[in-house]
Amino acid sequence: MKALIKVGVVLNLLIGLGHLLCMAALDKIFAIYGISDVMDRIAQYGTYLPYVITIIIAVAFFVVALYGMSALKAIPRLPLQTTAMSTIIIVFSGRVIWGLTMLVPHFTWLELSSTIVALLLAVCYLPYLCSSKIRD
Fold first, then answer.
1. Which end of the chain is more exposed for a tag (fewer CB within 10 A), N or C?
2. How far apart are CA 135 and CA 75, in angstroms?
3. pTM of the model
4. CA proximity to 81, closest of 129, 123, 119, 127
5. pLDDT one digit per residue (tens) for the chain, 136 residues
6. Are 8 and 134 within 8 A, CB to CB?
């Protein structure tokens, strides 16, 4: 059970780091993900905003990793641990549902891989809620 949470922590750290590393070529990454138009509209309100959004997303992944480390008792228990872990599972599950709805009209391997990673992350943190040994 703890091994799954460890996998989730590592994945979240890698994804957060990946977001930060993409900052050097953000326009190219947005094009790969097909969100250039959206980010261009956001940039009309400030050219820095796509960068801020990317940093916030990276920080969110790092926070999820911290809660995973806290669930493993590698760091002290964080506030609202059970609520946060429940929310994390719900958010990743929601990302899976959203990804599946995106795959129906426009299948891409990139979307499929992102959806599978979200599913894996939801599954990785599920043992926390299912095991009182981990929570206590």
1. C
2. 13
3. 0.90
4. 129
5. 789 999 999 999 999 999 999 999 999 999 998 899 999 999 999 999 999 999 999 999 999 999 999 999 999 999 999 999 999 999 999 999 999 998 899 888 989 999 999 999 999 999 888 876 655 5
6. no
